[in-house]
Specification:
This protein is mostly helical. The protein is 74% helix and 0% strand.
Length: 155
């Protein structure tokens, strides 16, 4: 968790240096940072579990890429959802990365001008969806990672 905080601080300071600004209240900004940390914490448990399943760091890099690639690139982070083909658009609307992106943009006051109101439930309720998704991931992957850790250390 400390690593996630350090990464968030470095990314925020870098963003501030290149012109990113928080355009909302302190409370909303804090909630935005907390939401990003909760999401990162949940993802870290998935990666911990994968890391204990594979035999080497090289294999982990490949395995984690298989998990991360579709989540980060089929999302609203880089392109407007309206420009995606229908199947990818539906995937992106329910993608937790899209929701955390939407929530962060709203909480930091950085929704691009002219962005249409989202029509999918996860993007209309982005903060809640990220929390639900993160809790679900933690409920599944904390026990899996702990069980795999016990198996790995008992050899």
């Amino acid at each position: 968790m400390v690593n996630n905080v350090i990464v968030l601080v470095v990314m925020s300071l870098t963003g501030l240096l290149v012109g990113w600004r928080i355009r909302t209240s302190v409370g909303e900004a804090v909630l935005g940072f907390v939401l990003l940390l909760v999401f990162a914490y949940a993802i870290s448990w998935i990666m911990a579990w994968i890391g204990m399943l594979v035999p080497s760091p090289e294999v982990f890099n490949n395995a984690s890429f298989v998990v991360i690639f579709p989540l980060t690139f089929v999302a609203n982070t880089f392109v407007p959802l309206e420009t995606l083909p229908t199947v990818l658009q539906r995937f992106a609307e329910w993608n937790p990365v899209s929701a955390v992106t939407q929530a962060a943009r709203e909480l930091f006051g950085n929704v691009p001008a002219g962005t249409p109101e989202p029509t999918a439930w996860p993007l209309q309720h982005a903060e809640l969806y990220v929390v639900i998704w993160s809790v679900a991931v933690l409920l599944v992957f904390v026990p899996l990672a702990n069980a795999q850790y016990r198996v790995s250390t008992s050899r």
